[in-house]
Amino acid sequence: MLSRKWWLVLSALVVAASATTIRRFNQDDDIIGEDDEAFDEYDEFDSNNVTSVGGRKGKILFPFVSIVRFANTECSTANSMNGTCLARRECNNLNGTITGTCATRRGRCCVVSRTCGTTTNVNNTYFSSPGYPAAYAGGPACSMIVNRCNANVCQLRIDFLDLVLAQPDGDGNCVTDSISVTGGNTIVPLLCGDLTGQTIFVDFNGNTAITIVVSATLATTFARRWNIRLVQLGCDCPGIAPNGCLQYYTGITGTINSFNYGTAANTVLSASLVTGTRQIVNLNYGICIRMEAGYCAIQYSQVAGDAFSFTLTGDVEGADNTVLGTQLGAVNGANCLTDFVVIPNPTVAATALAAGTDRFCGLGFVPVQSAAKPFVLYVVTNANEGATAATPPDIANRGFSLAYTQIAC
């Protein structure tokens, strides 16, 4: 009988202590609500899961405390930034910003932002220029090192949400500003200029980190800035880009722009002392479009209402409106020796006849279709946009902006 009384007393003390612990957690709550803070202290996380959606598991720790387990999935915030679902304590340890709740209020949507000279292994990290969105004057090279979240990650998607650097020189070389991406298993060309809205996909090379370096010349006054989102994609993620695709588009329709495409001319003169190009030299990469269900072919055409939307070679300033952006300005085949796009096995959209070539350049583009699979086009530019012994200089070229439309089977 005595031992039973002691057991009842001991049980009452344990219950009281547990209730006191929960109340203490609630008193410290300054984020969401009274009940959520207690869970923060006991959260466990599946750090090996970066692609699964939602879900949580719980078990009861005598007498009242629940241990909650949930995946570190992507979460959305009110300011349109994407975060990762983490515990409050873990987000604070990462110097992240809590923007809301996730996992049925058991986790915190944590946005992680970094700037120069930092390292991350957190999915959905934002890499921004110092003082962003204010203009950055330039200075020493600004780098970000990206390590994989875990062994199940195969690819890094780099979203240039807002990236404006100085234009290339008049011959297309990135000499004033540049952004480089190294360490991955994908060759990424040196880029510069206005890259806002562009996205590239870089394969991880095992556990080797991917390094992003932005070089901005302090001696050149320019309102440069950048905000880049770094998304780690699991090996089985539906959004992963196929091999050989530096860029990857989805959807039945869309617009594909060359790097640094814009309707305004480059104000820097080329070595030939003519208006320079916006095209970047030494490009050789593939752009892939996912074939949607029920669609068997694809059509490419110039963007409507933009006379500069296919100006790869030639003299833009010397072409009048009857040539620029029209069939008369189109060049193809063996005449495309320096800068061109390659579209496999094309047919002319208006006639359904074989185009007879897969190379296209010049100052205009005739709409073509292709049933070759996968849907892909290739971009090639040479090392010199200026005059050579064999070719006149390219003057005021913008690059290309092509609209695509998939064709139902």
TrEMBL record:
InterPro entries: CUB_dom, CUB_metazoa, Sperma_CUB_dom_sf. Residues 116-233 form the CUB domain. Transmembrane segments: none annotated. The keyword Disulfide bond applies. Gene3D superfamilies: Spermadhesin, CUB domain. Keywords: Disulfide bond, Signal. Residues 1-19 form the signal peptide. It holds the Pfam family CUB. This is SFRICE_005937. It comes from Spodoptera frugiperda (Fall armyworm).
